[in-house]
Design goal:
With 445 residues, this protein is an all-alpha fold. The protein is built from 18 helices and no strands. The two termini are 15 Å apart. Residues 1-28 and 222-232 have low confidence and may be disordered.
Length: 445
């Protein structure tokens, strides 16, 4: 057995069967999976795909937004920073809501907020209202991923949770793929308002799917000895959060999520297209093609990591360390390249490697899941899921400030981008140190 994988009993009063491989292990009526489980998961994951489409839509509209609102790089980064800040700040509240009221209601609320935020963004003509609309969008986005994980935990056996989480992330990249292929083209053919209004209207169909077809729990499944909702509602919110945080597996999950996710996330959400167009002299079409490679690589790594984790939990730390080391090394080579213009093959390799960042971050959620009981699963997942988005926020802000500080009369050049992207190593170093320290602490525990 992986010495870092057993789940420990929580502090919630009342009898609980032993938790050996996950939050549902040992519970009567452990879900068998099957077609019904995949159907329920597919309904839930459709909301997550929509959320990723909304989240990454600004990544291909950054230059258009700068022109539309008359803003510089720092102000442009504020859009994504606020969106990510709201997302990260909502993770614990959303986890508590999922634990208390169920994922279906939270998903429905998320769809409404996503659609409202994107619709407001479509008609915004000034910086302030546009910024507020991205905050609303970030709030809706925050309600999706944790809810889907909770659905999968109730429908699938615990041994498959890591695989289903990877597949959830993989499906989310389909939303990113739509952004890079369809939205980027629509912005230049249909225009700003029409493109973002159309994205907003998609929420109506997804809302109907969830409202009419989603079931949170398998019919006839045996409940836990004490109903989860009743147990959770007896526990004060502060106690719920404290018990999750005291669990070293939760904090290790947050550190892994933080360190692995942010490079690819920041690149895809905002700085990738400007770097390739302004820093490397590519056309928008060429830059869009390279960003598509990032999405396709993300999908491939999601399948690979899912298979590895299904075979053995021992693969978790090797995956995390390998992704961090490889991403850091390739960025060092790109940034050190003479003249700041690396060859195309090196940029392709970098994007392919950064495609591993998102799937690797789900290792952190698996640590949080496997070290907390079911009644704390939403809260623990929310804490761990904050990590990568906090790292993304730090990166978006740092790169934006450095770009404006270092920019000369010629604007944002290759040299400017080269020094600005050196900021990546600040959160990467801090996150890696936290992983090493918390892994040792968890091993001792």
């Amino acid at each position: 057995m992986d010495p870092l994988s057993p789940a420990r009993a929580g502090s919630v009063p009342g009898p609980r069967p032993p938790l050996t491989t996950g939050p549902l292990a040992g519970l009567p009526g452990s879900p068998p999976g099957g077609r019904a489980a995949w159907f329920a998961w597919s309904i839930g994951v459709s909301v997550y795909v929509l959320a990723v489409l909304h989240r990454t839509s600004l990544g291909v509209a950054g230059l258009d937004a700068a022109q539309r609102f008359g803003i510089n790089a720092s102000a442009l980064s504020t859009f994504s920073i606020l969106q990510v800040l709201v997302y990260a700040a909502m993770q614990i509240p959303v986890g508590l809501l999922v634990d208390r009221f169920g994922p279906r209601r939270v998903l429905l609320a998320g769809v409404v907020l996503l659609s409202a935020g994107q619709l407001a963004f479509a008609f915004s003509t000034s910086f302030g209202p546009a910024l507020a609309s991205r905050a609303v969008l970030g709030c809706g986005d925050a309600m999706t991923f944790i809810s889907v994980l909770r659905i999968s935990a109730r429908w699938f056996p615990a041994a498959k949770n890591a695989l289903v989480a990877q597949l959830t992330g993989l499906m989310g990249t389909c939303g990113n793929l739509v952004t890079t292929v369809v939205v980027a083209q629509a912005l230049h053919s249909a225009g700003w308002t029409t493109t973002f209004t159309t994205i907003s209207v998609l929420g109506a169909g997804v809302f109907a799917l969830v409202a009419l077809l989603l079931r949170e729990t398998p019919p006839g499944a045996g409940p836990a000895p004490v109903p989860v909702s009743a147990v959770v509602r007896r526990v004060p919110v502060r106690t719920q959060i404290r018990d999750c945080w005291r669990e070293p597996g939760t904090r290790l999950g947050l550190a892994i999520h933080f360190t692995t996710q942010f490079p690819g996330n920041a690149f895809a959400m905002l700085w990738g297209l400007p770097y390739l167009v302004e820093g490397q002299g590519m056309s928008r079409a060429e830059a869009g093609g390279l960003l598509t490679l990032l999405v396709l690589s993300n999908m491939a790594f999601g399948l690979l990591f899912g298979r590895l984790l299904l075979r053995s939990a021992r693969a978790r730390m090797p995956i995390a360390y390998t992704v961090i080391a490889t991403t850091g090394t390739l960025w060092a080579v790109v940034l050190a390249w003479p003249s700041g213009h690396p060859p195309l093959w090196l940029l392709v390799l970098l994007l392919l490697v950064m495609g591993s960042n998102g799937p690797a971050s789900l290792v952190g959620l698996d640590f949080a899941r496997s070290h907390n009981p079911l009644e704390r699963l939403g809260t623990a997942s929310g804490i761990a899921n904050m990590g990568g988005f906090i790292g993304t926020m730090i990166t978006l802000l740092g790169v934006g400030l450095l770009l404006d500080t270092l920019a000369g009369p010629g604007g944002y050049t290759a040299e400017t981008y080269r020094w600005a992207f050196c900021w990546l190593y600040v959160p990467m170093a801090g996150g890696l140190l936290a992983i090493v320290r918390l892994r040792r602490k968890l091993a001792r525990a």
